[in-house]
Specification:
The structure is a single chain. This protein is α+β, with helices and mostly antiparallel strands. Helices cover about 60% and strands about 15% of the residues. It is built from 2 helices and 3 strands. The chain has a 3-stranded antiparallel sheet with strand order 1-2-3, covered by helices on one side. A hairpin with an 8-residue loop joins strand 2 and strand 3.
Length: about 90
Amino acid sequence: MNQEKLKRVNEINKDISEIEEFLNFMTFSRGKINILGKKSVDRCIIFRIPAYGGSVSYDYTVPKELTSEVLKVIRDHREKLISEQNVLWGSE
């Protein structure tokens, strides 16, 4: 294994650890996530899981490769809500 591959393996390991920590914090947060905003330079979304009980709050920066996917899910959910609202109002 050359030095570049080793560096990439270590980066992947770090990313996996951050994701696992985020998911572990989600277990205790009762599903609540605050979106703090976007880093303008990297165009990444930052999630914050608020402190719960004895834990501290936890911030997770979504990698820029996934930011567009997260936004797509949120936009799709918004469209579903608008459609449901229109049905309830009798517009459709």
